[in-house]
Design brief:
The structure is a homodimer. By secondary structure, chain A is an alpha+beta fold. Chain A contains 5 helices and 3 strands. A 3-stranded antiparallel β-sheet of chain A has the order 1-3-2. In chain A, strand 2 and strand 3 form a beta hairpin. In chain A, helix 2 packs across helix 5. In chain A, 28% of the residues are buried. At the A-B interface, helix 1, helix 2 and helix 5 of A face helix 1, helix 2 and helix 5 of B. The structure holds a DNA duplex.
Chain lengths: 113, 113
DNA sequence: CTACTATACCTAAGATAATTATGTATATTT
DNA sequence: AAATATACATAATTATCTTAGGTATAGTAG
């Protein structure tokens, strides 16, 4: 009973930013696994969606990268910048507003408006 | 303090279907005004988004149309089909799941996971 | 009586963002 | 030896929305 992935689309950056805000630093592959885990396998964040999103947020100055060599393979750790933290708080607010908005819409529906 | 319109994108059809499920029949212009009203002007559903969505749902058999002449102008009333009702219930479930999913994500965040 | 606003439909060009399908390469498990 | 997991990445396509425009009638404001 997976959640319609369409709904997550608008919240992708919000999820990533808040994860990084919380965890400090993570690398791409780790993020995909973590999101799968905390969503009980309901939100499969594909790499084709993730990597371009990470690159864009880096370009926008929300994230910064440090590369580390692990097992002879380079890993790109993303951490959140000051600007990114502001953005993550903002996006969290927006998400909460959206949720409350949709809930009141559904309540109106049940009230028979 | 308007809600980020990006978040509504994935819920456009859900909103339209549930409105029509509730109200019986509505026409396009009426839907834009109603959505603006019940969202306290926070979600401006543009016509460029609405009409293509209505046409697609009609093609998909979720909606059906009856044209009425009001003040010498044709109005296209959309009503929901049996198939559309099933879809609206499904989409409502998906939305509630998404909301609960995001809330548990935010709780995990506050718990410091 | 003219201009603006509201009503009511619509589409097309462009932007954005996701999916799907690949591609590369190493390490581990079967 | 083959398959899976790890770890990065991009390109083509598709979906969906914004922006901007178009048509037309009716009512209101100056």
């Amino acid at each position: 009973m997976a959640v319609n992935p369409q709904l997550f689309k608008g919240s992708l950056n919000t999820i990533i930013l808040n994860l990084l805000h919380e965890k400090g630093k993570m690398y791409g592959y780790e993020i995909t696994k973590k999101v799968l885990e905390i969503s009980n396998s309901q939100f499969q964040l594909t790499e084709g969606a993730l990597y371009p999103a990470l690159h864009k947020m880096e370009t926008d100055g929300l994230l910064e990268v440090s590369v580390k060599l692990v097992d002879n393979r380079p890993r790109k750790y993303y951490s959140i910048t000051k600007k990114g933290k502001k953005e993550s708080v903002l996006k969290l607010k927006e998400l909460l507003q959206f949720i409350s908005q949709m809930q009141s819409f559904l309540q109106l529906k049940q009230a028979g408006l």
